[in-house]
Amino acid sequence: MNDHTGQGRSPQQGFQLRWTVACAGLVLLGVVLVARAVHLQVLNKEFLISQAQVRHLRTAKISANRGVITDRNGETLAASMPVDSLWVSPQELSRAPEQIPQLARALGLEPGMLARQITRNVDKDFMYLQRHMNPANARAVLDQGIPGVHVLREYRRYYPAGEVTGHLVGFTNVDDEGQEGMELAFDDWLRGHPGRKLVLRDRLGRVVEDVERLEPPSPGREVASSIDLRIQYLAYRELKAAVQENRALSGSAVVLDAQTGEVLAMVNQPTYNPNDRSQYAPGRFRNRAITDLFEPGSSFKPLVVAAALESGQWKRDSRVDTSPGMLQVANKVIEDEHNLGVIDLATVLARSSNVGMAKVALSLPSEQLWSVVNRFGIGRTTSSGFPGESAGLLSPYENWRPIAKATLAYGYGLSVTPLQLAQSYAVFAADGVLRPVSLIRIEHPPIGRQVISADNARAMVDLLEHVVTPEGTGLRAAVAGYRVAGKTGTARKFEVGGYSSERYTAVFAGVAPVSRPRLAVVVVVDEPRAGEYYGGAVAAPVFSKIVAGAMRILAVEPDKPVVPARSPRLTAAASP
Questions:
Q1: Cα(177)–Cα(195) distance, rounded to whole angstroms?
Q2: Domains of the chain
Q3: Alpha-carbon distances, residue 356 vs 213, 257, 370, 465 (angstroms)
Q4: What is the pLDDT of residues 21-59, one digit of tens each?
Q5: pTM of this prediction exceeds 0.85
Q6: What Å distances lie between residue 445 and 61, 222, 381, CA to CA?
Q7: Which of 94, 298, 352, 544 is catalytic?
Q8: Helix axes 100-107, 111-120, angle to 10 degrees
Q9: How would you label 47-81 residue by residue, b for 16+ Cβ within 10 Å and e otherwise?
Q10: Is 250 a catalytic residue?
């Protein structure tokens, strides 16, 4: 039987029903989407924008360029080069541990070691992977798309002159902070102030857009040093050759502009290359010319003679009896190599008579002698501002016994630095005026302090010129075409039990040219071990070569006529 209780639907009616349901569903979905869009873009707009910014906008540092250090003529001594440093967010990378071996290979690291570093710092958002990379190499690693790896633009210091200026300029650490030398002394000037910017990063943390500069970087100031790089090269070359030739332990040389107090050159041996961080060891980068102390020996005698002239008890032509070539003070016998008899002060200096100097010193009141020597800067720093500068040692005159006073006269019982001794000799060249030492180029000479009278300063230069003659101990310091004045020094080194008979410090200190002194130069060679050890044989030739080159570089007019050698034929023809 047929069921007549329901009515059957035609295919057309079924299709219409399905179409109606589908359209209703689409309309409902459209309404939901529109409602959601209104909710997101109108009702909840500010919240969503803030969340996007939290996830993709970051504040990044804009590194500031450290100031350039130049020599007095504008030649670059230190400059900063752009480099990239890779860093990683350990939290982010730890969520993709399978990427760690790939990252390790890209950096040339051992995967296990990198994995341990990531694990130890998993609670941190920042960890350096590699500092100061070539930008192209850093970009190659970054382009691999490893999550959590980012790049930071930094600067690395470069020193064009290398070891020639290493001790003077110093170096910075990996964070571009001054650690030694001028880099440390003038760090506040050189160091820039980093800026800040807002950047947009993608899901891998890569910067895709600079959104806004929040604070511009402030570059460091340029520092124009007092150094003349040409004279620095010259002094470096000559000192290095002398230290090697004499198989010495070390050496230092200082060249001062006596009229301004500027350091034109300062070199040491052994030295180091500040571009090579593997050479950063205290024994190598110590600036011996400023930090190391030594007993000056006979190179100190001119200061005592200056004190004698200042006392009024002695004149430049005063004479002293050194017979019989020895002098007993307390339980010590002071001796000269030869009995020089009655000699004037010029001969005392030229022949370096210890007996004569002891008698001069013992004739002076202790307080007066100490006062003049101290005014020369002995026992005080030079105010150069160089980090680690030593003040030397000059004991109070109240503690002087006669033997201490006598040995002080020929440079024992006190200590100085090469820079201090150079500053002292600059007083003779500057008409008795002591000027502060400057590592910065200065336009006008600073006002100095009158240490001794101008007449006595000029008298000392004249007396010291006798040292550089065939009758003096410093003949090898002579310079063709120029009159020079100076003093040799050969000091035994102190060791346990007394003074060594095998270890010496060879010194020559002097000024040039005599007619109008421009330079004060000190050369110190520590423990020459190739046979010669006297200051006149070891240090004086270095002084001569440095002064000869510096005079040409500075275009200083010769003040000593060069007498051409006569040929043997002409000499024979002229003979009666």
A1: 17
A2: 59-224 (3.90.1310.10), 229-274+290-553 (3.40.710.10)
A3: 75, 32, 19, 18
A4: 888 888 888 888 887 777 667 666 666 555 555 555 666
A5: no
A6: 42, 21, 19
A7: 298
A8: 120
A9: eeeeeeeeebebebeebbbbbbbbbbeebebbbbe
A10: no
